[in-house]
Write a structure and sequence with these properties.
The complex is a heterodimer. Chain A is α/β, with parallel strands linked by helices. Chain A has 15 helices and eleven strands. Chain A has an eleven-stranded mixed β-sheet with strand order 1-3-2-4-6-5-10-11-9-7-8. Chain B has three helices and two strands, in the order αααββ. A two-stranded antiparallel ribbon of chain B has the order 1-2. Classes of the chains: A alpha/beta, B mainly alpha.
Chain lengths: 487, 95
């Protein structure tokens, strides 16, 4: 069953011709056929196109072309519906884009193609990446492969569910406040939010431009490192991508983390954490100590302001970014007697409730008379939150936290209470505000019996400190068996 | 910050989003409670703190001012709801 393999396992078998790219792609398609009626990770996919890419990969293997230049040759990767893939639909989980077809490839897609990957499928998400459950998708929620009565997390819920359910080998998501790490935790997979500027955002539909990053969801830390190597780097099409050399992340996974210092933020372990999550994270911290790291208490005193700061900055940026969906250049249009009426009707009919709520909140915090009180103040608190981290990182190499306060919640449990939904992002949001990197890895289950749900451990790293958090995450992963369990 | 005072109808108009009366009522209450929560930022001491717009501000990111290939017109228009003569069509703007 090649669809169940990690990238590194699959690449080895493909290179030895134990399995073909076509067999692998077909196995993914068969698995989708079998389980996606329940999981609903995919919004659409083009099987013929995917198999044609697999055949092309097999031809390259046949002529001896599998090489270090194509480390992902023949590996089927599925893509969140927020990234442009030329000739494929792009909806961002929204009705407003109608029958939109992307006219170009996002930079990350170009890079993955150059590395030989098979790019297929459109993965479900909360509309415009606004949400923590995929319940805000205009096309209906995805479901958690571990318990289909529960959400897979969000906004990259389809990306996490597809990897957990063996429907693809790995996937790409995007993370503005936890949208990769939280679903990775809920679905028992690995999810990385890179440092701001590490990965080009060209071809990523913008939600909050100063917070958004694209990142991988995978079955192992090594796979996340391999994908980050492939998609990172400065890009002339994204002026916020940072001209910092791209390390060979996968080569730094030595398993030896003796002497590293890991911070435990005292503000993160108080109140609201589910007891099973706390027990799993405590045990993971002990395991890290066993592996030779030193645990140091650190303080992030402005943590309590993170959610409020985030919901001002993210909504303000979203209100500007989503102004482009006005029924003029693309997507659906509802006619009016003049352009203003057309815009209002188009957006009123095309956007879902959460997107409207956030655009209106963002418009309000930027509006005349409120800008200083809300937006400017939030930007100043953002400085304080960032300084908290930079100060903590003077003492430690990484910070360990739960990824989420609870395991996956039930469909409908929080969908009527936006504020409760926002508060479930408490551990992931600061990372985006500070622009640092973070990874979620499996660290346990809520129980030992049937119905057990995965729990995620988050490691936060310094700006451009992905090498270190990969190394720690890998050493932990290899000393445990959580990542080997399947739903 | 006068959280309760948000005039949903006016702000929705600024945002160019048409809301039904039911949506206005529901959203007004929800945004009101979110703003109440956000008010906790007033407790933070931001005296003398510089605002952060970007975690890693890069300045003077420029490229050569040279023309280069871009999306062909027909590609750019392909997703348009209404088009003619190589242009996007919109409702009449001036009388």
């Amino acid at each position: 069953m090649p669809n169940r393999l990690t990238i590194s396992e699959l690449s080895g078998r493909l290179a030895r011709r134990d399995v073909s790219a076509r067999q692998t792609m077909q196995a993914c398609l068969d698995q989708i056929q079998k389980v996606d009626g329940k999981v609903h990770a995919f919004l659409s996919l083009d099987a013929a196109d995917a198999l044609a890419q697999a055949d092309a990969a097999d031809r390259i293997f046949g002529s001896g072309g599998g090489s270090p230049q194509r480390p992902l040759l023949g590996v089927p990767l599925a893509i969140k519906d927020v990234l442009c893939v030329r000739g494929h639909p792009l909806n961002c989980g929204s009705k407003i884009l109608g029958k939109y077809i992307s006219p170009y490839d996002a930079t990350v897609i170009q890079k993955l193609r150059a590395a030989g990957a098979i790019i297929f499928g459109r993965l479900n998400m909360d509309e415009f990446a606004m949400g923590s459950s995929t319940e805000n998708s205009a096309f209906g929620p995805s479901r958690n492969p571990w318990d289909t009565a529960r959400i897979p997390g969000g906004s990259s819920g389809g990306s996490a569910a597809a990897v957990a359910a063996d429907e693809c080998i790995a996937s790409l998501g995007s993370d503005t406040g936890g949208s990769i790490r939280q679903p990775a935790a809920f679905c028992g997979v690995v999810g990385l939010k890179p440092t701001y500027g590490r990965v080009s955002r060209y071809g990523l539909v913008a939600f909050a431009s100063s917070l958004d990053q694209i990142g991988p969801l995978t079955r192992s830390v090594r796979d996340a490192a391999l994908l980050l190597e492939a998609i990172s780097g400065v890009d002339p099409c994204d002026s916020t991508s940072v001209p910092q050399p791209v390390p060979r992340y996968s080569e730094g996974l030595t398993g030896d983390i003796r002497g590293l210092r890991i911070g435990l933020a005292k503000e993160y372990m108080i109140g609201g954490v589910d007891s099973a999550v706390k027990a799993a994270v405590d045990a993971a911290v002990k395991q890290l100590e066993k592996l030779g790291v030193e645990i140091v208490e650190v303080s992030l005193p402005h943590t309590e302001y993170a959610v409020a700061t985030y919901y001002i900055i993210a909504t303000a940026e979203a209100s500007a970014n989503l102004a482009r969906f006005d029924g003029v250049r693309y997507g659906q249009r509802v006619d009016g007697n003049d352009p203003i009426e057309m815009y209002g009707r188009t957006r009123g009919a095309g956007f879902g409730a959460e997107v409207k709520r956030r655009i209106i909140l963002g418009t309000y915090v930027l509006s005349s008379g409120y800008y200083d009180a809300y937006y400017l103040r939030a930007q100043k608190v953002r400085t304080l939150i960032r300084q908290d981290f930079l100060k903590a990182f003077e003492k430690v190499d990484a910070i360990v936290t739960p990824t989420t306060p609870t395991a996956a919640f039930k469909i409908g449990e929080k969908s009527d209470d936006p504020l409760q939904m926002y508060l479930s992002d408490i551990y992931t949001i600061s990372c985006n505000l500070a622009g640092i990197c973070g990874i979620s890895i499996p660290c346990g289950f809520t129980s030992s019996g049937p119905g057990a749900l995965p729990i995620g451990l988050q490691l936060l790293g310094k700006p451009f400190g992905e090498e270190t958090i990969f190394k720690i995450a890998h050493a932990y992963e290899q000393s445990t068996e959580w990542h080997l369990r399947k739903p | 910050m006068p959280a309760a005072e948000i005039d949903i109808k006016y702000v929705a108009h600024l945002a160019r989003i048409h809301l039904s009366p039911e949506e206005q009522e529901k959203m007004g209450a929800q945004i009101g409670s979110i703003l109440q929560y956000i008010d906790k930022l007033n407790q933070a001491d931001v005296q003398g703190v510089e605002p952060t717009a970007h975690a890693f501000p890069l300045v003077n990111v420029v490229r050569m001012d040279q023309s280069r290939p871009s999306l062909p017109t027909e590609e750019a228009l392909r997703n348009a709801p209404a088009q003619a003569n190589g242009l996007f069509m919109v409702p009449k703007i001036v009388e």
